[in-house]
Amino acid sequence: MQAKETIFADLVQGRAQQFQVPLYQRTYSWTEKQLRQLWSDILEQADLIERGEKANTHFLGSVVLAPSPQNEATFPRWLVVDGQQRLTTLSLALTAIRDHVRDAEPDEAERIGEEYLINKRKGGSDHFRLLPTQADRPQFALHVRGPLAERPAEGNVAAAYSFFRRMLAGAVGPTAPLDVFRIEQAITSRLTLVAVTAERGDNVHRIFESLNNTGLKLSQADLLRNYLFMRLPTRGEHVYETLWLPLQDSLTNEELEQLMWLQLVLDGDDRVRRQDLYTVQQQRFEHDGASEAEIEAYIRELHRRAALFRRLLHPDEEPNPSVRAHLNRLNAWQAQVTYPALMLLLERRERGDLSSSDTARAMSYVESFLVRRMICRVPTNNLNRVFQAMPGQLPLGVPVADGLHQLLSADNRFWPADGELREKVRTAPFYQFGRWHQRRMVLQRLEESYEHPEPVDFGAAQLTIEHVMPQSPGDEWIRMLSADTTDGESVEDLHSRLHHTLGNLTLTAVNSELSNHPYERKQGLLQASHLEMNRRIAATERWGAGEILARADELAGRAIALWPAPLHGVGRAERSRDWSLAHQALATLPRGTWTSYGDLAAFLGSGAQAVGNHLANTQGVVNAYRVLTSDGKVSDGFRWTPGSHEGDVRSRLSADGIRFTVHGAADPAQRLTADELALLAAEDGDLATGEDGAQHTPAGPGEVTRADRFFHQLAADDSPETVEAVRAIFARWEELGGWIGHGAGQVTTSAFLMLGEAGAPGRGIWPLTLYPGGGRGGTAEIVFQHLAAREPFTDRGLRADFLGRLNALEGVDVPEGKLNLRPNFRLSLLEKDHNHALLIEALAWFQERWESRDTA
Question: Which of 111, 240, 639, 671 holds its CA 20 to 30 A away from the CA of 122?
């Protein structure tokens, strides 16, 4: 191999020649981010040329070339092993310059084309100095042949050309400082490249592999595609046109990679990881000495399976209505983990091993397995292994659907039976487990089970989850609940135990109107609902513990009918895993925090006495001594278990950062509620701040906005001074460059202080979420849980700094143990001028840290 420094002009000028991007290379993929950086470098060099300065050139990168098999002595052809993105981009930039000057200086336009873009006396594909990979050739050829008679189709090639045309329009001309030919000179002679040229005998694939098999430049699908077409020297063009291009057009690169991985799993490799896809498949081909025919057969099988795989991604392409319904629900569940099983079923049906009705029945077992586990709070950490192993474990000699039913019912699969499902529907805090779209789907299926003659169009309806008994109950709710307490249970503990259970939840499109109002007002709104479950709730005279449990029993019966049970005698989920959730939550208690028996019981869907008995009789439970009574006292019945660290409990708590009041109670500010325990135990994304996040929704003429509803509800519970203080905070936040989003999910009147692109919160960040109080005063939630996953606030020190600034407000005292949770403070504190000023300072500091995240 030979390496030398060169410039674009020296590389491509001179006699007729061609640089061919092989079929195995990925398509042109530079986005505006890379284009803008290159344009900035070009303008810098052009400005230096304009001023006559002989500064250092700008190094652009390397280009690795190898002789093409089609090489001719009179017409050299080179394979672009590496560097196609740079060469394509520079060629498109020169094409844009040629078209920019075409009308005013046609001779110069022709010169640019002949020197850099075309081989004037060659026809067909030989006409082009650069020949991109097949998928990009039509677009690239349209631009280089130019001028375009009409706007070309969308694509990265067209986008790059349009980018350079726009930049040229702004950089040159009567009012612009730069001459267009200085820009041409900068591109062709001031951007240096290192050209590495391989000899004919060099192993081009090994060169490419060493350059790109880092996991950074190319995806696993890119690497495997490149390898496959390097192994097809004579059949490559035909296979690419007839099989690969249709496959590539039908799936995204991410989806194609997933299909390649699934192909390995379906062929029996149940332990391969997606990040090892390329290495594993390459080793298979190398070990077997795969011929071109075998490589082609592999691609043909990918092509066949792609049609089945698309039905998982786009269920509407499935012709059978029953199978389509199951695929739609699993798609809504985002059940990608089940793809090995679903692909297996579709393949077996295609082979004639099972009918569409049996395929739907088998899919109902998969759906039930997921739903029952979610309702019964079974951790999801082994689901990948369960479904990935399924193709190799399916029993022989048993019908496919029955074999799958048997597999999922095995004693180590934890598929809850009817009895456990009934119990968990009654007692488990459904709202705190699984992901919001999964919870909504469960409620949707329960509503559909009523088979109302005029069913709701769930695709069009803006339905969110509503707590009938609200999360923040007012005085009327407290009076109603006080009549239901038994066995010394407090109203607060009763509310905590029931308000997140399935019996208290429904779907509604009028969440903001329902809010935290008394039951009588909610009754009227629910009665007018189109949902049968809401009309049934409204037909109940009151809504207390008895009514919630009665509805839970009804819904449990419907759930049992909707989602089939596991087979009896194969085994069922162990009851002890409920306690494993408790152990997990206690083990992750942050320093300086404690919880109560009632909070832990509400989190588990159990009872406080059962929790106390378990902790008293179970050895090795980490932090068991940090579970106290609801008033922050050590339980009279607490005893160290044998083998535990004995000593004074209060001393141990103090050593753990727990503060005590003058009355000897643990500081209530350091107590973790059931909701906060759920946050500690939640998987990433399970507990979002709002079902649909913050949305920036400008109003039309006369339209009542979410902002209007937010302030209307805030004014119902807080003083005019608090409302005005919040308005002033919002105004100052917008002056800092932020925007105010409003929730479209279960709390439609929340307000998010957003930074980032307006209307795209998934790419932004927010420090606070504000909620009207529903009878108890509005609150500002500090979203540390959200911040902990977003730069730069993944740094715990920055979150601690932000907390310190907020704790400077009079009346705010959030313990450091809640730096991964979502603590809150009352909005009424902002009525005080010094608190208002301190919050503005804290938000300005937050905005500065976020803006400087890339340069820190």
Answer: 240
